[in-house]
Design goal:
The chain is an alpha+beta fold. The protein has five helices and 18 strands. The chain has two domains: 177 residues, Double-stranded beta-helix, CATH 3.60.130; 78 residues, no CATH class.
């Protein structure tokens, strides 16, 4: 039997779900589907260990929606057909965020996709001995803070379209902050903004990058999540920003997460942040 425990951090609500000894795909998919209807960030424990975990969780996610087959060569950024991408420490590839042990700024994964998946799913195969927590900031918390503290920046983020791309693949051309009936829709990745757009966009992207770092990351006003080996994290990618702490590692694979992305068939959570 699954258990649900809600952790209300001011920056983001994280729902902890233990699927227990249950291994039937339909049952686990139903548990995860219900969790995604309750919170924008879900921490899952109790699933199978590696190596069978990847096949198991891929099958679970296929019951939730359409899996996005967007594998990627980490050096050339060439798209390759694959379900999983590894976020693995590798000193030979450490010039990329994906394979480095450096901190990763707050971002969304789907900004550079023309049709962004709604759900990001990560399985932890190996965790660093120190550091490496994922950091979350709910879109509601972000927007409420901006409206209180930096109205002009908020207005620009809502109104100025920005083009994103990764490698040869063009992404969306949208404002950083949109809105629908479920709340804010966030499209942000500083390093995937198409270059040479305008001085106005250069100013805006640098201002927002600095604001996120100084207002939320450096003040630790983000919700941290530590994954143990075998744990998973699942989140609404268009509704929350996520980043990563720096971590300690020396050998390739010392920290390793596996990521897939899903076009979920469910509906978004109206509100998950506990901020007022």
């Amino acid at each position: 039997m699954s258990t649900y425990v809600r952790g209300n951090h001011p920056a983001a609500t994280i729902l902890k779900v233990d699927v227990g000894p249950e291994r039937r795909l339909d049952a686990v998919a139903a548990i995860l589907d219900e969790a995604l209807r309750q919170a924008r960030v879900v921490h899952v424990s109790g699933g199978p260990p590696a190596p069978e975990a990847l096949d198991f969780w891929a099958a679970v996610n296929m019951k939730l929606g359409d899996v996005d087959y967007r594998g990627e060569n980490p050096m050339t950024l060439e798209r390759i057909p694959a379900i999983w991408n590894d976020i693995r420490y590798d000193p030979a590839l450490a010039t990329t965020y994906r394979h480095s042990k450096t901190a990763q700024p707050l971002h969304t994964d789907g900004a550079y996709n023309a049709n962004p998946p709604t759900i990001g799913f990560f399985f932890c195969e190996a965790q660093a001995r120190h550091g490496g927590r994922t950091l979350f900031l709910d879109g509601d918390c972000l927007c409420e803070t901006l409206q209180r503290e930096s109205r002009e920046l908020y207005a620009d983020l809502r109104s100025i379209p920005i083009a994103f791309r990764k490698g040869e693949a063009s992404g969306q051309i949208v404002p950083v902050i949109g809105r629908d009936k479920y709340g804010p829709v966030i499209n942000w990745n500083y390093y995937r903004i198409s270059p040479g757009q305008s001085a106005e966009i250069d100013r805006l992207k640098n201002a927002f990058f600095a604001y996120l770092e100084s207002r939320f990351v450096q003040t630790e006003s983000v919700a941290p999540l530590h994954l143990a080996p075998g744990d998973c994290m699942v989140f609404h990618d268009l509704r929350v920003l996520h980043g990563r702490e720096a971590y300690e590692a020396e050998k390739a694979g010392e920290r390793c997460l596996w990521n897939l992305n899903v076009h979920w068939r469910g509906e978004a959570v109206v509100r998950s942040s506990s901020a007022s």
